[in-house]
Amino acid sequence: MFSTELINKLKKFNTPFYFYDTDLLHKTLFAIKEAASLFQYNIHYALKANANPKLLKIISSYGFGADCVSGNEIERALHCGFSSDKIVFAGVGKTDLEIKLSIEKHIYSINCESLEELEVVNSIASKENKRVRVALRINPNVDAKTHKNITTGLTVNKFGLSIDDLHRIMSKIDKYKNLHMDGLHFHIGSQINNLNVFSELSKKVNTIQSYLEEYNFYPNHINLGGGLGINYQKPEDQIPDFQAYFKIFANNLNVNANQSIHFEPGRSIIGQSGMLLTRVLYTKETENGKLIIVDAGFTELIRPALYQAQHKIVNLSSNDCNETYDIAGPICETSDYFGRSVKLPRTKRGDLIAIMSVGAYGETMASQYNLRSLAPSFYNDVISYSALI
Ligand code: LLP
Predict the structure, then answer these.
(1) Which of 18, 252, 261, 368 is most buried per CB count within 10 Å?
(2) Ligand 1, residues 32, 42, 44, 48: which to mutate, most atoms within 8 A of Cβ?
(3) For ligand 1, is residue 137 a contact (CB within 6 Å)?
(4) How far is the CA of 49 from the centre of ligand 1 (A)?
(5) CATH superfamily name and code, 22-270
(6) Is 152 exposed, middle or buried (0-12, 13-18, 19+ CB in 10 A)?
(7) Ligand 1: does its nearest atom lie under 6 Å from the Cβ of 357?
């Protein structure tokens, strides 16, 4: 995974920085495109995973659509080559301005998450004298069996409409004169590795579709969200098995004639293509064992602090025998750790460390807490600062 040539290149830069392998990104995009085309599934890449313009331009070049959750993401997607008629817009808290923008840009679908939101979208569309395509995001109460902070499809979560809401909408559907109720949307969570969860989701969608038949409502599109996990323990397992994932839906979901099926993968497309490079600032012995302080912190990668995520950590400067370390960042917060009791070759000040699998939800979740600077991005093909847009 790390040639001497690559390590020598990486050593030239000030840390911390993100490094993206665009060759792997291309391979992953090719794999998902091929798998999706076997089933005629539509892909909308979830920008929230990584909205770096250079990477977005690569992703859009495969003809995929975009899944956005803010007006700025819609603008960024358009700027980076995604076609407006393949953009979907979700989120529990869309502002009036964002709704207006999505109507003006003629995006594919606004995915509505509450009765009140439907009223608001209908009224804004009416003022604009437009009829807009919407999908109803339903909370199916399916447990994604993932970390609680990235579980979205249970009734305790804030996302989506309830089945009761759905009945209410259907019984007075004619009042939404400026809405074209076109689809159903689901997204039950992220980093899902138990594929049975997706067969459960498919069966729930079948049940919901049968309720809707009672109202003579046949959605033209079904959007099943994202959620496919990646292997954080083994980043060398680079490309998720998209075919196995899609097959679960193909085997379990009832699809009507002329109905299109959509997915919104984020992490599974970009996760393994990024790493975070950081240098060891200090080492110290504590009563708890050996501690390494590196120059990246949760400002560059918050996943370990927020979700207790474990990213593989590699020392690129040492082949010495292994020792056990806790690895912490410089932020003035107790949760600023990248790992505990991690086995690494004997490590010293100045060593270059790679934190793997940070392509998704690394750069997009960065902050400037402690007035830190945002880390730059470099790429395997062009070793330069990321283009500013
Ligand atoms: N669609 C919707 C409506 C979503 O909310 C999400 C992710 C996705 C698609 C993409 O899901 P993916 O394929 O990436 O699992 N920051 C967390 C993940 C939050 C996911 C939020 N929604 C993390 O670092 O694990």
Answers:
(1) 18
(2) 48
(3) no
(4) 7
(5) Alanine racemase (3.20.20.10)
(6) buried
(7) no
The Cα–Cα gap between 190 and 170 comes to: 29
Instruction: Say whether domain 4-19+272-388 belongs to CATH 3.40.50.620.
Output: no
Residues 117-135 have pLDDT tens digits of: 999 999 999 999 999 999 9
With a CB cutoff of 8 Å and minimum separation 6, the contacts of 379 are 19, 20, 21, 22, 54, 386
| Pocket flag, ligand 1, residue 265 (CB < 6 Å) | yes
- Taking residues 229-245, report their average pLDDT: 97
Residue from 154, 264, 302 to probe ligand 1 pocket by mutation (most atoms less than 8 Å from CB): 264
pLDDT in tens, 141-161: 888 888 888 888 878 788 899
Mean pLDDT taken over the chain:
95
Token reading at 109: 């679908």
For the entire predicted model, the pTM comes to 0.96
| ∠ Cα 256 105 130 (to 5°) | 70
- Indicate where the chain has its CATH 2.40.37.10 domain(s): 4-19+272-388
